[in-house]
Amino acid sequence: MNPPRALAIQIAFLLLPIAISLAIGAILVIAVGRDPLEVVDALWKGAFKDSRKLGGVVNFWIPLTLVSIGLVVTFRAGLWNIGVEGQMMMGALFASWGAQYILLDESLSPLLNVILIALAALGGMFWGAVVGALKIRLGVNEIFGGVALNALVNVISIYLISGPWQPRIGGSAQGTEPFPTPALLPEFSARFPTNLFMIALVIAAFLIVMVMLNATRWGLNLKAVGANMRSALLLGVATERTSMSAFLVCGALAGIAGSYRVLFTFDNLRPLASGGIGFLGLLVVLLLSIRLLWVPLIAFAFATILTGSTRLQIALKLDSSLAGVLQGLLVLFVILFHGVQEVFFPQTLADDETAEDSVAAVSSAVKQKP
Amino acid sequence: MDIELRNIHKRFGAIHANNDINVRFSHGRIVGILGENGAGKSTLMKILSGFQPADHGDILIDERRIDFTGPTAAIANGIGMLQQDPLDVGAFTVLENFIYGGAKGLTLKRARAEAQLSELTARFGFELDPHQPIDNLLIAQRQQLEIIRLLALGVETLILDEPTTGISAEQKDILFDALRQLARDEGMIILLVSHKLEDVIDLCDEVVVLRGGLMVGEMDMPASDKRLTSALVAETKGQLVTMMFGEELEAQSRPHYEIGAPVFIADKLVVQDLRLDMQPISLTAHAGEVIGLAGLGGSGQELFMRACARLQRVNSGALHFDGDNITGASYRQLFRRGCVFGAAGRLEEGLIAGLTLIEHTALVADDKLQIDWKSVAERADRRIDHYRIKGRAADAIEQLSGGNQQRLLIGLLPDDPKMLILEQPTRGLDVDSARWIWTQLLERCGRGAAIIFNSSDLEELVTYSDRIFVFYAGRVHEVADVAATSIDELGHLIGGSF
Prior knowledge:
The structure holds two protein chains of two kinds.
Chain A (H helix, E strand, L loop, with lengths): L2 H29 L4 H13 L2 H26 L7 H18 L7 H30 L3 H21 L33 H20 L1 H11 L1 H6 L4 H27 L11 H11 L7 H14 L1 H7 L4 H24 L8 H16 L2
Helix pairs in contact in A: 1-14, 2-3, 2-12, 2-13, 3-7, 3-8, 3-10, 3-11, 3-12, 4-5, 4-6, 4-10, 5-6, 5-10, 7-8, 8-10
Chain B lengths: L2 E10 L2 E11 L4 E5 L6 H8 L7 E6 L2 E3 L4 H6 L2 E4 L11 H6 L10 H15 L14 H14 L4 E5 L7 H18 L2 E5 L3 H7 L2 E6 L2 E7 L9 H16 L16 E10 L9 E6 L3 E5 L6 H8 L5 E8 L2 E2 L5 H6 L2 E4 L14 H9 L7 H14 L15 H10 L7 E5 L7 H16 L3 E5 L3 H7 L2 E6 L2 E5 L7 H7 L5
Parallel strand pairs in B: 3-8, 3-9, 6-7, 7-8, 13-18, 13-19, 16-17, 17-18
Antiparallel strand pairs in B: 1-2, 1-4, 4-5, 9-10, 11-12, 11-14, 14-15, 19-20
Helix pairs in contact in B: 4-5, 7-8, 11-12
């Protein structure tokens, strides 16, 4: 197939499911007696009315993008890291511990921020490593291990909140006391309440993982292990170490995402502080069939819809779960159309956008040399 | 039934796998389909049996144009294919496998099916216990089951892909008698895809030869009207080889290298297995030596090789490699020290579907973190040239034909290993390709590598081995003087007469 036609098909298959799910969403809205344009308007205003709203979208986007990048790594290695939610939570716990017990002066706040984020990364890696060890050493499927560890970390967090870390006055299971100010990640400004350092960290993580996946042996090993563990072993890949490294990288990124929830979004540790963002990340990555390039964009779209939907209830007296319905429709149609594309236009699907193309270009360039 | 293929075309990317094929298969004839690897035989047979559609062209049965939408439609039209690895369901019994695919209506009608099964097995002299699980059967028996299953479905044309691989001399005789009977008494068309020219000459009435996607010739075989003498077989074989390759091949003789120090020692090794009662095996492989393992599929040779490569548990005994005890080592540790295992599975074990040739090359290139894609691409292109792989460096591995996958698998082996443990290194390859692979392997022997390999091709074992170990039901017999043995004798040994 010639490249322009393949590109056209690819774009069509990206846009069609979005258009169809929007259309069905509109029909639903009309069915309950509302104007779909009103809903779009409400969603839009809920997300982009002013820079404060936009800040809210970004604050959701940061942890979602981090976990999604991590999940691209585990998916590349053929691993279903359902435990990502728990890894976020363990990162949040480690950061919360540091926030309460490492007491530094206000002037050293940036240093403390870095220490806490590093702690959170360690926490996520620890919980990821447990899933990995269960899988590699004991043959426990990472999905089962992950689900169990998700539950376990929630129990631990509730124990800490209602036990050792409970507020001195009026202790309940609602959450810990707000952390000391030096521990919290600062807002850029009241008009744009988000944390620039974390945004930089997300961009850095994106670029580093992109390069690592496509230009290094580690990335190739991940792909080989993910596609065929047995063959990879016979070709000399250290398969166990490669799988473990995927869990560690994803765990670290999830842990950092967890720290953002407690050190910025909430200012304290709450039960379920990870807020399902890890699971949402699974969705983002599956939608993109593990293509890293579009992760930030799709994560932004999800963040927009979810943040904007809070306004549906206020402005239109519509239940905010409508956003969930829209999201569900979108997922359904994207997956459906992906299947259709796989059956009818398999040539237009490349599983990673950069390596294949660049490699093809290089090899044809090499071939042309005398 | 008569079948006619008209102007069949099939392309896979840049490769024209079938280029305007016109051929007729007539009632009651046994036809051999010949050609080197990648000649387009498998593609043509897959089109005829409904496994894949042609890009262009017609299939006519008794002058009537037929549209196949899949294997089921082909079977409904009377064409059935026996795959190289029989498509059966392991946990089911012989009877259950016989029934499925054939049952109409809701109930299974076991009693009637069982009567039909035993009638058919008796007629062809097959030995099949209806209540035996498939997992316990030999390859030959699974083939027999598949044949009578297709017959019960009303198939009038039977396509067989390399049916004589992995079965003993006696089992081959039973199979060939059944096929002759089907052609003669029932008027069935038998299409035989095989690289074993002796088998083709022995069985077929005529052959069709493909080369590079084109049909290059047809020829009647002498079997039907003359008694086969060895001189006649040799002469016919020469003619066929010339048609297949466009030139005559020189007789193969292998260089023998000086046998050096012991590289690999298995000392009273007992491999763990639930089904086979594995006896202790002792074997020493020396530098420059080729050791062949013979035996019917599932006689223990595969387990032994995997145990040597540390991919299979051992119960007792010891393994030594390069002077060290490696009984508890991992495969990766062995690999890094130059002991490499090559599996027969290609896409299941060995190559990675979804990865390109370049990516495979990069995987085995070195250990540096950063991949220099440009130099890897050059390296991949060199291997493609050197190993005569038909495909491009950026192609995904599953786009290559089976033979080319096999060449790549050998091409990915390190240049200077100390020890190679190879499962069926030339499985499914034509004579020329197989020789080429062996030239590559023997070069490594010349540089001091020891090779342990197994094969279901007895001629290959006799030609290339310095010593042969014959496996039967977990027992082992050593043939130390290969020059003094014959293919015939080996054929009886693998049947357990030792």
